Amino acid sequence: MGIGQLAGFAGATVVLVGMPGPNNLYISLRSLTQGRRAGVVSALAIETGTLVYIVVTALGLATLVQASPTLYTAITVAGALYLAYLGLKLLKAPANDHSADIQAAPLGRVFRDGVVVNLLNPKAALFFLAFLPQFATRGADPGQLRTELLLLGVGALLIGLALDLCYAVGADAVGRRFRGARTTSRRRNLIVAAIYLGLSAFALITAL
Questions:
Q1: Transmembrane segments in this chain: where (predicted)?
Q2: Distance between CA 127 and CA 104 in Å, rounded?
């Protein structure tokens, strides 16, 4: 793999990973509503899900998903339903008239939800199914191909983590004002829930 090929991969990865999607949205919302610490935990959770994709791709299991449009659609629908679940959970959350944080979930739950959001994210699945393998050496033996896919995956993970942390820090800066605004927690719940449900609806429309 040449320097030019790696540079092209890095540049394209920055663009694709940096584009707004379920992962970036999840990190931003957690950081907006619970602060930088929750945003950083969310970023680590997202990249933990990326580790799973890296292993699956290197083992060749991604080929099975790529060959089955039904399975890919099922993953997309499951991701959309999980986003809808997060939105509905916010709608049912108790609220008061004070400027409390939106669903200040324990960090363990924040991490768990982040991993699931990434694993069921059609954008992440498409990246590892269709984009990353294009940069591996054509005609390479299985061992070399597996090594290249692992290295490319780790590179994508590091780029993704850097971008995720930028989202977390930036959203926290905005969130300090948002969290301190004189609005009811119920109203804030409605705003964030609407974002989750809107993204869920978009994913379902795309899948079906």
A1: 6-26, 38-65, 71-88, 115-137, 149-169, 190-207
A2: 31
Hey, what amino acid is at 16?
A: L
Residues 82-120: tens digit of each pLDDT: 778 877 877 776 655 444 444 467 899 999 999 999 988
Q: Which residues have C-beta within 8 Å of that of residue 114, sequence separation ≥ 6?
A: 26, 27, 30, 41, 42, 43, 44, 45, 46, 48, 49
Question: Considering only CA atoms, which of 81, 206, 67, 60 is closest in space to residue 143?
Answer: 60
The amino acid present at 90, given as its one-letter code, is L
Q: Does 197 map to a domain?
A: no
Tokens found for residue 17: 């990973």
In a domain, 12, yes or no: yes
Count how many domains the chain has: 1
Tell me the residue range of the domain where 68 lies.
3-182
User: Which pLDDT tens digit goes with each residue over 187-199?
Assistant: 666 767 777 777 7
* 71 domain residue, yes or no: yes
Long-range contacts of 17-20 (CB under 8 A, 24+ apart): 17/127, 17/156, 17/159, 17/160, 17/163, 18/163, 19/123
List all residues 6 or more positions away from 203 whose beta carbon is below 8 Å from its beta carbon. Answer: 22, 76, 77, 79, 80, 83, 122
Name the residue among 56, 165, 36, 171 with its Cα closest to residue 119. 56
In a domain, 121, yes or no: yes
